[in-house]
Specification:
The structure is a single chain. The chain is α/β, with parallel strands linked by helices and 131 residues long. 44% of the residues lie in helices and 18% in strands. It has five helices and five strands; from the N terminus they run E-H-E-H-E-H-E-H-E-H. The chain has a five-stranded parallel beta sheet, sandwiched between helices. It starts with 9 loop residues before the first strand and ends with a helix.
Amino acid sequence: MGGDAILKRVLLADKDKYSTERLIRIFKENYSIWPQVWQNEHAFQAFIRAPEDGAVFVRIDDPSIPGLELTRQATAVYPQIQVVWMAAGEGYALEAFPRGVDAYLLLPATEEKLAEVMDSLIFKKVRYGEK
């Protein structure tokens, strides 16, 4: 389904075990990507500062994840990083794109939903050569 994806690095900023395990399985099986999982802001900083392209999937509806700040940091300085907001509802969708978010993933994630998001991210990289 997307084995030769351009994106090779993914960070999941999500503390929900079910959601994270599901996404990790889909990334591994369909994209041969072994995502890093949120540990703390220091690990996030190391991820976005790396020169390689990557995507950060931010659980925006979890108050224990500083999603707005993570988004601001990633979109302000690091053009090699694409940002995807994830939420259990559509309540944050309208706020996402004015903040520089590249895609929105409605949870629970399915292979089809993730494929749409990945196709969107890959299209942006190929078409625009940037975010």
